[in-house]
UniProtKB/TrEMBL annotation:
It comes from the Eukaryota. The lineage of its organism: Eukaryota, Metazoa, Ecdysozoa, Nematoda, Chromadorea. PANTHER family: REGULATOR OF G PROTEIN SIGNALING (PTHR10845), REGULATOR OF G-PROTEIN SIGNALING RGS-3 (PTHR10845:SF235). It comes from Meloidogyne graminicola. Coiled coil: none annotated. SMART domains: RGS. Residues 135-244, 259-378 form the RGS domain. This is RGS domain-containing protein. Gene3D superfamilies: Regulator of G-protein Signalling 4, domain 2 (1.10.167.10).
Length: 382
């Protein structure tokens, strides 16, 4: 009875993995073992142990194969180290690398001496403060103003633009064609790698028969760069503000205690007020106010005014913007509609500015007048 039961329930276990080991390739049958019903756990344990040993052997062999392949691939891909940067891509030149590096080093950009900041002798605060609302042409006509602007350009690695303009202004007075041709060559050799000229301007200045008018194209391009990019940054620069602060009379700062408009209208006062607002995480309202003031100085209904209105809207009025200024919903909608319909003039932000001024005046202004920052400034002006 027991024999027939065992024969009927005989099972053969054969591992599916091939060529594992001699031991694991044999079949296991319950008919080959006595006391079959009582030794099931021992047989199962023996089989599992043999199967695990064979698996470990297989894994080790596979790991050896993979390791050999990786070594071969690495050996095939290894290249000798590049000893000379000029060999990269077959065309790079070390001299070009040095030229690019020199463009960002103040001492190697040109042979002109490092400009020195002028003293405050012979100049009053109103004169220096007027530069913040002037043009490049106006500050260039002011001897001290030009020198302060030159120092800013030197710090910004852009002094070559001003030097280039000054050289052109000298050459425009020249009448002899040969001297003009030589002067243009020297000019481009000296500043050509630093200044940003269009191909049209370069072609005009390299003409075989040079005309003094050919310099006008180059002159206008660099002058426009100064006016639209570097001069606005100069008016907000630390260098200019520190120069103004040296000239600021104490009586001007004392007026801020009783006049919010006097504080906003003063370049130095607004600078210290901005620093105070930054420390209390509320500077976005003042930055919006300043951006609108700069916006109003653009030509009315111009493309530049439209573009700047879009920039202000994206930076300060767009919902979720990092510097979002919170306006009443209806007011925000009216401003956005005008910009969307391109109905933009100098008054497009007037209502929003009045709202922001009221917010600044209600709480931040009072806290600033009583702050340590303001009192330290008063003591410094003594």
């Amino acid at each position: 009875m027991w024999r027939s039961y065992a024969a009927a329930n005989t099972k053969t276990f054969t591992p599916k993995r091939k060529n594992i080991s001699a031991h694991s390739s044999h079949s296991f049958s319950t008919t080959n073992l006595p006391n079959k019903l009582f030794n099931t756990n021992r047989r199962s344990s023996s089989f599992n142990s043999s199967f695990e040993d064979s698996n470990n052997l297989f894994d080790k062999k596979e790991e050896e194969k993979i390791l050999k392949k990786e070594i071969n691939i690495k050996n095939n891909l290894e290249m000798p180290p590049i000893k000379d940067i000029s060999t990269i891509n077959g065309i790079r030149d070390i001299n070009n690398e040095k030229t690019i590096q020199n463009m960002f080093e103040k001492d190697s950009r040109n042979d002109a001496p490092i400009p020195q900041m002028p003293t405050t002798d012979g100049i009053e605060y109103p004169r220096a403060a007027s530069w913040s609302s002037s043009t490049v042409a106006e500050i260039m006509r002011d001897k001290i103003g030009r020198q302060v602007f030159r120092c800013f350009l030197h710090e910004s690695l852009a002094e070559e633009n001003l030097l280039f303009i000054e050289e052109i202004e000298k050459m425009k007075k020249e009448k002899q064609p040969e001297k003009i041709r030589q002067g243009i060559k020297i000019l481009l050799d000296k500043y050509g790698q630093y200044i940003n000229l269009s191909s049209v301007a370069m072609k005009a200045t390299k003409s075989e028969i040079p005309d003094p008018k050919a310099l006008e194209c180059s002159h206008k391009e660099i002058y426009k760069l100064l006016e639209n990019d570097q001069f606005p940054r100069f008016r907000r620069s630390k260098l200019y503000l520190e120069f103004l602060e040296q000239l600021l009379p104490r009586s001007y700062a004392e007026r801020w205690m009783t006049s919010f408009d006097a504080l906003l209208g003063n370049q130095v006062g607004r600078h210290h007020f901005r620093q105070f607002l930054f420390n209390v995480h509320a500077e976005e309202n003042l930055r919006f106010w300043e951006s609108v003031i700069e916006f109003r100085q653009l030509k009315n209904k111009s493309i530049a005014m439209l573009n700047m209105s879009r920039t202000i809207q994206q930076q300060f009025l767009r919902e979720g913007a990092h510097n979002e200024v919170f306006l009443p919903f209806g007011l925000r909608q009216r401003v956005e509609k005008k910009i969307r319909e391109k109905n933009v003039d100098e008054s497009v932000f007037d209502e929003a500015v009045k709202h922001v001024e009221q917010i600044l005046k209600n709480d931040p202004y009072v806290r600033f007048i009583n702050s340590k920052e303001y009192n330290d400034l008063l003591a410094k002006l003594n």
